[in-house]
Amino acid sequence: MKLSNYILNTMFAAMLLIPASLTAQNKTFENLAKKENVEYVYIPQSMLKSMDGMQFNGSINLSQAVNKLKSVEVLACLDPVTIEMIIPALKEDADKMETLSKVIDEGDSVEIYAVRNGERFSELYIINVTRSDADKHELSAIYITGDFSADDLKNL
Fold this sequence. Notes:
Residues 1-24 form the signal peptide. This protein is an alpha+beta fold.
């Protein structure tokens, strides 16, 4: 249950922070989702469209973001052994993209990758790994595809 709450929170954060449009499902995510201790969520455009007009905390309106989304994929894991097995597959996908940002601090990391089409992006890939101590490891990865600008990402 704890992992389910974690992935739902991660998914919600992704939708709030990353307005973009998406297309096909990521095969790497689908394959990794078959591993034990891994949670995977795929949200199609039809589900995202049903959120149009919703407000969160009274002030955050997702209309602009939701109208640009086709799908959101989130992968999450809390098991340290599984996380170490998953990271190479995620990095293999990320290596095909441009690095937009990479922050590493005391074992924690957030990496953001993208594929550009001119001034616009066609894919956005976020990998977040937390290794705060021997007992607490968290991995969340978010995959977004579509046709969106840097300004689109700032609109929330």
